[in-house]
Structure formats: structure tokens, C-alpha cells
């Protein structure tokens, strides 16, 4: 097993990658996002993300393909977070002012919801649906089995998988 590169070597590699491919990544993102500021933010976030990941850049054979995969993943995370934020803000919009959570509480809740959403996104669709039907709608396993048109034992397996996945995500 090889150890990760020394930080100075890693930073130098990222710097070289930035110099060689930043303009290309920015153009690639502009075409897809159609908004220069969002493209610039995402290009920046892509390289910042790479600084935090000890990767053997010498092993990356197609840096542009690799950068586009990293940027696409960050974009998906951003869109997911925006959807969660929008749903949360819509849910609390009708609350009386006295019951509104403080800005600090709202931020903590939004971050928690984004993490939960990311964990659930890692589940297979039927597993995720079974888990959500159980936890959000309060359905029993038999009702979930009927709703998903699967056996009761499948629902039990789905729930065990979902709970294990959530537990491991906390570690």
C-alpha cells in the first residue's frame, strides 16, 4: 500500500493541473451551466475539492475526463442541496414568526438535511422508497410491501440495508 503524496508535492501537482486545464474546465462548465459566475464557482470548487483529496495525479491518464467527473459530482451535490433548501424553506414559510427557527438553527437543519439526502441517495431506489415510506409516512412493512409490490421479506431486507447504510454513514 502506498502512502499519499506529501502535501507540497500534491499541491504542486494540483497547481500544474490547474494551469493546464482550468481554462478548459471553465469553458466546459460554461457550456453546460450557461452562467459564467456559476461555472467559475464550480471550477474553483473542483480544484479546492482536489486539494483536500490525496490522489496520485500521475496515475490519472485523462485529466480532463477526471476533472469533468469531479465537477459533475460537485454540481449534483449543489443541486441536491438547493432542492433540500427550497423544500425546507417552503415547509417553514407558513410558520408563525414566533415559531420560526433561528438562522443558526436553520443552517444546522439544512446541513443535516443535505447529509441525510446524500446518504439516502446512495441507496437503491426500492430500498430508499421503503425507508422513506416507513420513516416519513409511518407505513408498516406489510403496507410498504403492498405499495412497492414486493414481498414482506424484501421490505425487511430493504429496511435492514437502509438502517445499516445510515448507521455506517454516521461513523
Describe this structure in words.
There is one protein chain. α3 (63-92) crosses α4 and α5 crosses α6 (141-148). This protein has seven helices and no strands. It is 76% helix and 0% strand. It is an all-alpha fold and 171 residues long. It has two domains: 7-88, no CATH class; 97-170, Arc Repressor Mutant, subunit A (Orthogonal Bundle). The longest helix is centred in the middle third of the chain and has 30 residues, at 63-92.
Q: Which structural class do you get from the secondary structure elements?
A: mainly alpha
Q: Kindly, what is the distance between the CA atoms of the first and last residues, rounded to a whole number of angstroms? A: 23 Å
Can you tell me the overall shape? globular
N-to-C series of helices and strands: HHHHHHH
Number of strands: 0
Measured by DSSP, the beta-strand proportion falls in under 5%
Major sheet attributes:
none
Q: How many whole angstroms does the radius of gyration measure?
A: 21 Å
What is the average per-residue confidence, as pLDDT, rounded to a whole number?
Answer: 85
Tell me the number of helical segments per DSSP (H or I, 4 or more residues long). 7
Helical fraction equals: over 70%
List the uncertain runs: none
Amino acid at each position: 500500500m502506498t502512502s499519499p503524496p506529501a502535501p507540497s508535492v500534491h499541491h504542486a501537482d494540483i497547481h500544474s493541473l490547474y494551469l493546464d486545464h482550468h481554462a478548459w474546465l471553465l469553458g466546459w462548465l460554461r457550456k453546460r451551466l450557461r452562467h459564467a459566475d456559476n461555472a467559475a464557482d464550480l471550477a474553483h470548487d473542483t480544484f479546492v475539492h482536489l486539494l483536500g483529496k490525496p490522489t496520485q495525479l500521475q496515475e490519472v491518464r485523462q485529466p480532463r475526463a477526471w476533472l469533468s467527473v469531479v465537477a459533475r459530482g460537485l454540481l449534483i451535490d449543489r443541486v441536491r442541496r438547493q432542492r433540500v433548501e427550497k423544500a425546507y424553506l417552503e415547509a417553514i414559510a407558513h410558520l408563525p414568526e414566533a415559531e420560526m427557527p433561528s438562522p443558526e438553527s436553520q443552517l444546522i437543519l439544512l446541513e443535516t438535511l443535505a447529509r441525510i439526502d446524500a446518504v439516502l441517495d446512495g441507496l437503491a431506489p426500492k430500498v430508499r422508497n421503503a425507508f422513506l415510506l416507513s420513516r416519513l409516512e409511518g407505513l408498516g412493512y406489510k403496507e410498504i410491501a403492498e405499495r412497492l409490490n414486493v414481498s414482506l421479506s424484501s421490505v425487511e431486507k430493504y429496511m435492514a440495508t437502509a438502517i445499516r447504510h445510515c448507521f455506517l454513514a454516521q461513523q
